[in-house]
Each structure stands twice: as structure tokens, then as C-alpha cells.
Design goal:
Elements: E1 2-9, H1 22-25, H2 27-30, E2 35-40, H3 57-73, E3 77-83, H4 89-100, E4 104-108, H5 129-133, E5 155-160, H6 165-174, E6 177-180, H7 181-187, H8 189-201, E7 207-212, H9 234-245, E8 251-257, H10 268-285
Parallel strand pairs: 1-2, 1-3, 3-8, 4-5, 4-7, 5-6, 7-8
Helix pairs in contact: 3-4, 7-8, 8-9, 9-10
Bound molecules: manganese (II) ion.
Length: about 290
């Protein structure tokens, strides 16, 4: 099986600049896959004002439509999508759903990304991808997708700790399973991931994984756009990934997102992002 990387160089989902540069930093590691594609955002003036509820939606949608079409076209192998802010996962997840029909989802993130246009406070679209791909945020951000959305019964949030009230309501109403950062600390990363896998694969044909680097404590990985304190440590971060990568034949696609070089200190986050990507490539290549 072929292994592809699609670099999704967009930071249009967040009012903070820089996460579009993440993939360029990881070029050396990316040489190890069969082919690398790069989608870049159009030159545009970014909206950052607090009171705008659909920030950068026009250019973001254009970017995501291109990304979706690119990933859909790569149908003879497994795609690793490297972000970029987490809004790019609208396309990586939905493209995988289009190709694989009945798949579950594991969303590893300190935030839930489960806002709708009604509940968002920041207006940042990177706070909405999980809700969008589960079909509770209308079609505005997913008009290019013509299949069934992800089933919340097969969708799991792992590592959540910074969840806003409206968002929490959305999650509960949808029936998403939530494992918090505290659950990981209490029961162990491996045990929590085992539970998450069981939920994601129950009556499904595979799994998409979306890994947001901000699940890691920002003291350890400061190079992210929106920091959430009291996160997991490095060995927990690797354990989560290691456990899921044991399910090689179930994995249909995977994202690694939100590495923002602009906020990195002493290459701490670069080193972590590279080693996580390396871990993904090494495990998936030996098929
Ligand atoms: Mn996220």
C-alpha cells in the first residue's frame, strides 16, 4: 500500500497566524513516504476581529474544497494530512468518509472543536471541524461532501480539557464519547486509547485519527496557536499514538495538526511534531 502526505498549509481557521507554516518545517521527515502533495492558502487578508462569527469562511472553504478533492483523488493508498490549523480536518475526515463509507473517528485534542455557528464564541472555524463532520453544523463548511456524516456513536474525543459550555451541550446532544485529560492521567493513556478504539471500530470498517498537538501540555509543546494548560506529557502523547498504530489494518487515514512554528521555543514542538510524524510513517510503512 502506498503512503501519501498531504500538507494542508492553512491557518485560516484561527485568528492567530503561523500554523500554515508547520508542514514546511517537517519536510525532511516527509521524504520517507511515496509522494508528498502541498495545498497552500490563497493570498488573502485574514479576518481576525473578535466579533466576526464566520472568520475567513470564503477563503477557508476554497482551500478546504481543494484539499478535499486532492485527498479523494488519492485512492490507492493511505493519506497522512499534516496541518495547518484543525479546520483542515473537515476535508481530511470527509474525504476519508467518502472513500471508506463506514468509518469511526478518534479526535485527540485538548479542545473539543465541537462548536456550531450558533455556539461559537471566537468565530474561529478551527473550533468547529468535529461538529461539522458529525453533521450538526449545517452544510456551510462541507457543501462539497455528498455522503453521510460521521456517526457520533463511533466518534470519540480523547484528551479534552478546554471545553466551552455551548460546545459541551453539543457534544452531549450528539452522543460523542469524551475521555478527558484527567481520564488519561487516572487510567493511563494506553487504557483510554483501547477504550476509544473499541468505540470507533464497533460496527465500522475502519478509523480516521485526527491528532492535535495541543493535547500535549504547552510547557512541553509551546508551538501551538491556542494553548490549554495542564495537558498530557510526552510519554502519554506517544503512548496514545502507539496504541492506535497497533491497529494498522483498521487505520484509513490520519491527521497531525496545529503545530505552529511561530510560537515554538528552542525547537521543543518541532522535535515532538517530527517524532510523532516519524512514528506514524514508520508504523504505517511496514505493512
Ligand atoms: Mn483541534
Amino acid at each position: 500500500m502506498k503512503l501519501y502526505i498531504v500538507n494542508a498549509c492553512s491557518d485560516l481557521g484561527v485568528h492567530i497566524d503561523g500554523s500554515n507554516k508547520g508542514p514546511y518545517m517537517l519536510k525532511e521527515i516527509e521524504k520517507k513516504v511515496d509522494k508528498v502533495y502541498t495545498i497552500e492558502k490563497e493570498n488573502c487578508e485574514k479576518q481576525k476581529e473578535k466579533n466576526i462569527k464566520e472568520k475567513n469562511i470564503k477563503f477557508l472553504n476554497k482551500f478546504n474544497e481543494d484539499l478535499y478533492n486532492k485527498i479523494c483523488a488519492l485512492n490507492d493508498g493511505l493519506v497522512i494530512t499534516v496541518g495547518g490549523d484543525h479546520s483542515i480536518a473537515i476535508s481530511s475526515c470527509l474525504a476519508s468518509k467518502k472513500k471508506n463509507n463506514n468509518i469511526g473517528l478518534i479526535w485527540i485534542d485538548s479542545h473539543a472543536d465541537y462548536h456550531t455557528f450558533d455556539t461559537t464564541i471566537s468565530g474561529n472555524i478551527h473550533g468547529m471541524p468535529f461538529a461539522t463532520i458529525c453533521g450538526i453544523n449545517g452544510r456551510k463548511l462541507s457543501y462539497f461532501f455528498d455522503r453521510n456524516y460521521f456517526n457520533p456513536k463511533n466518534s470519540v474525543l480523547v484528551g479534552g480539557r478546554d471545553i466551552e459550555d455551548g460546545e459541551y451541550e453539543n457534544l452531549k446532544n450528539s452522543g460523542i464519547t469524551i475521555f478527558t485529560t484527567n481520564d488519561i492521567k487516572k487510567y493511563g493513556a494506553t487504557n483510554i486509547m483501547k477504550k476509544a478504539i473499541n468505540i470507533a471500530i464497533k460496527n465500522s470498517d475502519g478509523i480516521h485519527i485526527s491528532y492535535d498537538i495541543d493535547v500535549i501540555d504547552p510547557k512541553i509543546a509551546p508551538g501551538v496557536s491556542v494553548k490549554a494548560t495542564n495537558g498530557i506529557n510526552l510519554s502519554e502523547a506517544k503512548e496514545l499514538l502507539n496504541e492506535i498504530l497497533k491497529q494498522k489494518d483498521k487505520i484509513k487515514s490520519i491527521d497531525l495538526v496545529e503545530y505552529n512554528p511561530d510560537f515554538d521555543i528552542d525547537n521543543k514542538t518541532y522535535n515532538i511534531a517530527s517524532s510523532l510524524l516519524q512514528q506514524i510513517i514508520d508504523k504505517l510503512k511496514n505493512n
